[in-house]
Amino acid sequence: MKRAFSLLLLLVSLSAVAAAQLPYRITTVAGSGAFRFRGDGGAQEARLVDPRWVADSPYGDVFFSEDYFNLILHVDGGGSVYPTAGNGDVGYTPDLRNALEAQLNTPAGVAVDRDGQVYFADQLNNRIRYVQGDGRIRTLAGTGEAGSGGNGGPARFGVLDHPQDIAIDRERQLLYVSEPSQNRVRRIDLNPGGLITLLAGNGAAGFSGDGGQAAIAQLDAPQGLAVESDGSVLIADQGNRRVRRVRLSGVIETVAGTGQAGTAGDGGQAKSAQLTAPNDVLAQADGSILIADPAGVLRRIDSSGVITSIVAPQLSGASSLAAAPGVGGGFLAVVDLRVMRYRSGVVTVFAGGDPALGVGDGGLAGDAKILEPAGVAITDEDDIYVGDAKDMHVRKVGLDGRISTIAQASGRAMAVDSLGRIHVTTGPTVLRLNPSGEPTLIAGGGPSENGEGGDGFPADLADLGDVRGLAFDSGDNLFLADTKKHVIRRVDMASSIITTVAGTGSAGFAGDGGPASAAQLDSPEGLAFGPDGTLYIADSGNNRIRVLRNGQIETLTGTGENADTGDGGPASAAALPHPTGVTVNARGEVFVTSGNRIRRITLDGMIDTISGAIDAGYSGDGGLSTLARLSAPRALSSNARGEILFSDAGNQRVRKLEPVHFFKEGVVNAANYQAPIAPGMIVSIFGLDLGPETPVSGGLNALGFVETNVGGVEVRFDSHLAPIFFASSGQLNVQAPYEIENQTTSTIQISRNGEVLNSSTVPVAHAAPGIFAIAGGTGQIVAFNQDNSLNSASNPEAPGRVAVLVLTGAGVNDPRVPTGALNIPEPSKPIREVKVFIGGVEAEVLYAGAAGFAGLTQVNFRIPAGAPSGPAVPISVTVAEFVSPSGTTIAVGQ
After folding, report:
1. 451 beta partners
2. Torsion angle of the four alpha carbons 808, 824, 852, 742, in this order, in degrees rounded to the nearest 10
3. 710-718 LR contacts (CB < 8 Å, sep 24+)
4. What is the pLDDT of residues 800-835, one digit of tens each?
């Protein structure tokens, strides 16, 4: 028995169902993840990225840490290079595993004991670890927690804080470790049951204690260590711009450096010379000392205490030193991307071939390797720029999707002026790049003698620290965040004069509600202007976003806690962990990178997460941004279309958030709101701004078919126009054309008043039955009892009697009917068998065929005698092997 229903009215009523709208789709536009180490050639051919600390061994081999690859590498006597520890992934692997399968986290200092065991500082795991002779990894010291406890107790239970360099006294079986963040150096006894004790530094940054006991002296961010032949320990006391020595008696003294930055003093006593930022020291067999000063020059102190510079341009910027093996001796120095060897005045490459720079240039951006994506910029013309802080390249992604290098600069921050000119940072300078990538210095280049930092004088004479934020105001004046000096400065681009507009220059938090020039900032990074001229500041060290309006400063969001809370509430009450990037769209919504998430502050002052989670990861491309995982996102940039570009630094990628009107997840069966779709199915599309604000129902055209343009909206499945039953801002109800029957996917495109919104590709099945339910999607279905009354909990149907339901998604009918047709002839039935199950018991299907118009199937069935009774008995439909989702019910009486 076939009934006629007002099914069009039923479909229109679905407009009352709302779906959660998340308006961004995430994609990767450049980068394919980590660049892996390949050591299939000799050491001199190996492509290194960030070699850090180098160490010799008593057997002539050389070991060094590779920060980027998270490996400890070994160069043997034959010149081959291969890993000793690490599998290349970041993490922590428990003890006694194969060292080559272990995860490390930013390995730093390396040393080798007299038995050939290799020790290293597993820096971000807060441990000292070593590789046994059998190749297994073990922990010498550190619990994994960051801290300062455990002195006087077993080393295994000592608490370390980001250990940096290590050095071994092989004769005395002692290991020394520097902890810059704790301003100290500790000693570990390598004998069984060895203890950890304090060697030098009372924990407070500063300079004091010469002539007294090292344990109560002050150090400032000690870095490299070395052991002299008599057991004295040399310390590169970087923050104090000195090299210091701790005698076996525990007394500390200065070996080199006055504390004043510079390179003067050659030919005189080392204690009267200037050092800039000593990073490592090396005690040589002849009693001389070498000092690696990356910000200055390589220095040598002879046995009489006289200091000289080693004239070798190839070693400029050396950061780590070790004795060189083999005949002729000399020393090794880590310089940028290579390990170099100095012997008898000649410098050669010891390890590191062609630099791992610009990997993938000329190819598709998605296949390229971006070692450390930092600053990003997206222009209104779809130009994309990214700074790679690790390989010091600024790269551009063209409209063809290919990537190329346009300049050498770190690009930690980027900004585009109104003329489309790209400005980038590289350390303490800001550069403007012309179309061919040639730089012009805009700011930095000091130190300036024209007042503190150069205020009131040309910007290219200013003394800048480390610029990590750039933004242009509406007048094309440049604002920059000097992260190291804790200030925001303004460059008047007409006069080139620079001034400080926020921050006193000392790190701290103060000044809200008052003049920005008197406020304290702490390591500010990202900057962005809103449409009303407000300057937004990612005050990273203060865990806040602050705003500068009319010279006054206040906090927009962030309580100051290093936490990640507050979503769904007022931004003023939320906590942000170290926000680094900020951008503002044309509407005035603010977007912030913090932790592993991107958060949005809406116009009404509420905060939510639009991408990422508290835990790091990589996922989500092509889908809803809120379902994606990110890893340490840094900089942000937005364009006039509201697209947001960001550097997903931990994933070595640049990704984009595109505001879209609908996603594939929002294209569902109109009956049950499930995917996939099927040919002829009535489909609901949920989204934002899809159609008119006032809902419009579809009608019939002159040929008697359902209209394909309703309220100015058209929907295409591939090239096929879809009939539209209902159109509103948040929902469209359409029929999927039968023409997609032999496809596994279909690309849906929506246009409104001639403007193409966006497209999305969705899965297609031969059939995907869904039963219309009263509540929409689940629960009591729309079913009629044998007396034409509506089935309900208070009006059940008895076994043996007939009930009727309507479904969509049964697939193609025979004979074929055109898409959008009404008054389908009664013989038109699904080509696949339809079955109904009540409480798991199969019902007798009396009729399954077209119902009113194409896309709907009416099913008349008899309630089986063995069916359970109740107000909500599960009901399902199968069309061949395709089963309707669970969750629908029917009322069955006695």
Report:
1. none
2. 10
3. 712/752, 712/753, 712/754, 713/750, 713/751, 713/752, 714/750, 714/751, 715/685, 715/748, 715/749, 715/750, 716/748, 716/749, 716/750, 716/751, 717/746, 717/747, 717/748, 718/743, 718/746, 718/747
4. 999 999 999 999 999 888 998 877 766 789 999 999
